[in-house]
Amino acid sequence: MAEALHIASLLVHVRPELLDAVKANLRLLDGLELHQESPLGKLVVVLETEHERQILERIEQINQLPGVLNAALVYHEVLSPEGAAQ
């Protein structure tokens, strides 16, 4: 690993009737994985980015998607290149 890798977990709350549309839009975003969902409109999303700034940008993008009520950061970890060698 040449650079640090930022792993972030988000809880995304969406309008239940737009859940499928929001999931389709989320799948278009680079470095994003959908991990869990609730029919009540809650999604667990994981991001992998090279820079912390990209996490904030992605949260802002997600919050702007039609049907998204809120995207909240739940967890953030930085994996450093030094730590990967150990």
From TrEMBL:
Query: What the protein does?
Result: Chaperone for NapA, the catalytic subunit of the periplasmic nitrate reductase. It binds directly and specifically to the twin-arginine signal peptide of NapA, preventing premature interaction with the Tat translocase and premature export.
The record's section on HAMAP family has:
NapD
Name of the protein described by the UniProt record? Chaperone NapD
Q: What is the similarity comment for this entry? A: Belongs to the NapD family.
Q: Where in the cell is it found?
A: Cytoplasm
Per the record, its GO cellular-component terms are: cytoplasm
Task: Spell out the InterPro entries in the cross-references.
Answer: Chaperone_NapD_NO3_reduct
Give a single Pfam family match.
Answer: NapD
- Any one GO molecular function term: signal sequence binding
Whom does it interact with, and what assembly results? Interacts with the cytoplasmic NapA precursor.
Q: Which UniProt keywords apply?
A: Chaperone, Cytoplasm
Does the keyword section mention Cytoplasm? yes
Q: Does the keyword Chaperone apply?
A: yes
| GO annotation (BP), single | negative regulation of protein transport
